[in-house]
Write a structure and sequence with these properties.
By secondary structure, the protein is an all-alpha fold. 79% of the residues lie in helices and 0% in strands.
Length: 107
């Protein structure tokens, strides 16, 4: 995602919510890690890809905040909105990975 086009509020929101999304993905991968089922191992691999991408996005958000001189502030977001934003971020990454796999398969 393009952090330079993001508003201050979006950057602050992402700086707070991305760590929660990372935790969610890591917990899901950990829960699946004991399975020997090949399909679940695929889910774990996808979770690892999403984890790396979320980590990179968080680093970029933090860098952009620093470059703009924006200090960490308290943001006003309720639990349902936070869940919705995190769900949308995860859906976006899942859709991106799915499209990459489909492009790879069609080549």
């Amino acid at each position: 995602m393009n952090q330079t086009a993001m508003s201050r509020e979006e950057l602050l929101r992402d700086s707070v919510l991305l760590p929660h999304a990372l935790t969610l993905i890591e917990e899901e991968a950990r829960a699946l890690s004991t399975s020997k089922d090949p399909i679940r191992r695929l889910y774990i691999a996808a979770a690892k890809v999403i984890d790396v991408r979320l980590t990179n996005e968080l680093a970029a958000v933090r860098k952009e905040l620093q470059q703009r001189g924006i200090l960490a502030e308290k943001i006003d977001i309720d639990r349902e909105e936070a869940r919705a934003v995190i769900s949308e971020q995860l859906r976006w990454y899942i859709r991106e990975i799915t499209e990459e796999l489909q492009r790879h398969h069609s080549n």
